[in-house]
Amino acid sequence: MKPVFRIDFVSDVSCPWCAIGLGALETSLDRLRDELGASIHFQPFELNPRMGPDGQDIGEHIAQKYGSSPQQQAATREMIRQRGADVGFVFRPEGRGRIYNTFDAHRLLHWAHEEGRAEAGDGEPGQQRRLKKALFAAYFTEGRSPASHEVLVEAAEAAGLDAGRAREVLASDEFADDVREREAFWREREIHAVPAIVIDDTHLVSGGQPTEVFERILRKLAERRRETGPGA
To answer: Looking at the whole model, is its pTM more than 0.70?
Structure first.
């Protein structure tokens, strides 16, 4: 029997390295599909929890946060674009225009997880992954705001979720406490940067690693599982 791993993918929808990391992880799992299985569960992390509703110009934001020049930012955008292309993800060549608050996006992702949990049992709620990827595409590929309820509802519908129910969630404070609790949980576990990929609650992979890194780690863990049993 193939070993099956639980993977908690701690990330923010406004993080380009999270989109790259997810693409690399999915590619590695596809390559290893005859050797192992995995269920991915997306966990909330806000890079800018105090960001206002209108967001901030991305160049201004990055300059304030990291002190980088326009030339350095352009070089980073091109590197990100190339890394995305390597895993089949399309970043707009001009990059992002603004950075936004993503709390409502995380509430919607939590709802998507709950919607799919009854169907998936202990496995992966597929609706959540589809929504996550739709949100990445809306922001990084199409240049749309992940804070916009219209964008969030359209992403939910594209993921196969009920648009009317998505609107109800967004119009309320539903799942707000759940998201805050999960964010606090991961902070208490010393997760302060994303993506943070936690495999079977014991093995941490940090950053948007290349496909080969995920492949090597997963294969090693699968070999250990076969040698020592599920509790290893």
So the answer is: yes
